[in-house]
Amino acid sequence: MATGVVDRTKNGEREKKKKQKTIVFLHPDLGIGGAERLVVDAAVGLQRKGCKVVIFTSHCDPGHCFDEARDGTLDVRVRGNTLVPPSILGRFSILCAILRQIHLILSIAVFSSELSDINPTGFFVDQLSAGLPLLSFLRPQTPIFFYCHFPDLLLVQNRNSSLFKRLYRIPFDALEQWSMGFATTTAVNSGFTKSIVAKTWPGYPAEKLRIVYPCINTSSLPTGGVGDDRRQPLKWSNSGEKSVILSINRFERKKNIGLAVQAFALLPVGENVSYHSDLVGLCEGLGLKSATVKTVVSALNSSIEDVDVLFLLSVPNALKEILLKSAKLLVYTPKEEHFGIVPLEAMLRGVPVLAADSGGPLETVVEGKTGWLRAGEPELWADVMERVVGEMTEEELKRMGEEGKRRVRENFAETEMAGRLEGIFEEMDGMERIQNGLLGAVFVVMAVVMGAVGVVAGLWLVKTW
């Protein structure tokens, strides 16, 4: 009996300790991208676990951010945005981002007592690792969790860049690798990204790399049956029922949307503004009639009896839900996508997914159970499309849809990511801290000098670059 009392006391103390955790997030620009969605989900998840959460960012536009960042759900504070602009006449964005991060850290930790008043038990930093040495110097006993969405040096690589631009990137690429070493633990969004990080930085300690999958909210599906078992065919004007094959992506060339159009053209039935124009031209060349609509009202009121491919330039959540509810198949064309949240959104709503057999979809889509994985030949994609539209029964599609729902809820729910993060922060509490005082001080001096030289050089070079 006595032992049981002691155990309950210890469990209570551990629970109390968890609830007292205070996690400070540092994020460059809290907009509406995939990285921002992950940060918001992570912050909300940890908050629901009993943690106090404060997000510091250099920019957050209330008109261009997720609801949780503006409706009071999260404590979001904008700091470090008064000295350095996001870019210098449209150039040197990486230099400016680093200087803004340093300014943010100094603003809350040196020029004010804001960070001391919060007294964080852990840091969550993502996208930009340059400020980690300074953070480690100022708070050597506070563990740092860094989320690497993808190596920045690979995201900005361009073989057509000038020699000057490639030389300009060298110190920043080296800084990215070096500064990541100051994180207590580093996480990536998929096994695919982990393999890329290992290849990019072979000397980075493998034991510090963890996988934390992005999540999807499984508890707040819109009402009206979007997540139920009944597929509701979409009707436009007097066109009657159409079998909808859906692709949700930005109009960027790297998303490879043309593959979906080429595959669709083989069926028996038929990044930007410039890429959208290319896609319209592709449809014409393949004998497909296309239409483009810009608003929800025009989309729902369009008469598309003779339209094969419909391009929607704006897809708000309400329209996306209608489309997902109507779709028989979601096609996800990006090759070597780091993770990809769209397949999870479709699977949660019972829609099978056809995705590229590379990158994140290899870890989310199960071949033959929740969808299909195919190489980049249009003929292979057309074969799956034809099977779904013309051969599979509603019962077969329903069974595959149920498998998709189950997989998302069991592996990629918001509670899964929050629990994973909570466990990592618990583990970091017991890790030995590395005292980086000297290196941190050197970094501060280096950053100030680099910033001064960079700004002067930027103002001088921008006229001739």
From TrEMBL:
Q: Name one GO molecular function term.
A: GDP-Man:Man(2)GlcNAc(2)-PP-Dol alpha-1,6-mannosyltransferase activity
- State its Enzyme Commission number(s): 2.4.1.132, 2.4.1.257
* Pathway the protein takes part in: Protein modification; protein glycosylation
Report the GO terms under cellular component: endoplasmic reticulum membrane
Q: Cite the Glycosyltransferase subfamily 4-like N-terminal domain residue spans from the record.
A: 32-219
The record lists the catalysed reaction(s) as: a beta-D-Man-(1->4)-beta-D-GlcNAc-(1->4)-alpha-D-GlcNAc-diphospho-di-trans,poly-cis-dolichol + GDP-alpha-D-mannose = an alpha-D-Man-(1->3)-beta-D-Man-(1->4)-beta-D-GlcNAc-(1->4)-alpha-D-GlcNAc-diphospho-di-trans,poly-cis-dolichol + GDP + H(+); an alpha-D-Man-(1->3)-beta-D-Man-(1->4)-beta-D-GlcNAc-(1->4)-alpha-D-GlcNAc-diphospho-di-trans,poly-cis-dolichol + GDP-alpha-D-mannose = an alpha-D-Man-(1->3)-[alpha-D-Man-(1->6)]-beta-D-Man-(1->4)-beta-D-GlcNAc-(1->4)-alpha-D-GlcNAc-diphospho-di-trans,poly-cis-dolichol + GDP + H(+)
Localization terms from the record: Endoplasmic reticulum membrane
Kindly report the protein's main subcellular placement as a broad class: endoplasmic reticulum
Q: Where are the transmembrane segments?
A: 438-462
Give the Gene3D superfamilies listed for this entry: Glycogen Phosphorylase B
Q: Which residues form the Glycosyl transferase family domain?
A: 236-406
Enzyme superclass (EC) = transferase
Query: Which function does this protein serve?
Result: Mannosylates Man(2)GlcNAc(2)-dolichol diphosphate and Man(1)GlcNAc(2)-dolichol diphosphate to form Man(3)GlcNAc(2)-dolichol diphosphate.
**Family membership noted in the UniProt record:** Belongs to the glycosyltransferase group 1 family.
PANTHER family (UniProt xref): ALPHA-1,3/1,6-MANNOSYLTRANSFERASE ALG2 (PTHR45918), ALPHA-1,3_1,6-MANNOSYLTRANSFERASE ALG2 (PTHR45918:SF1)
Query: In its UniProt entry, what is this protein called?
Result: Alpha-1,3/1,6-mannosyltransferase ALG2
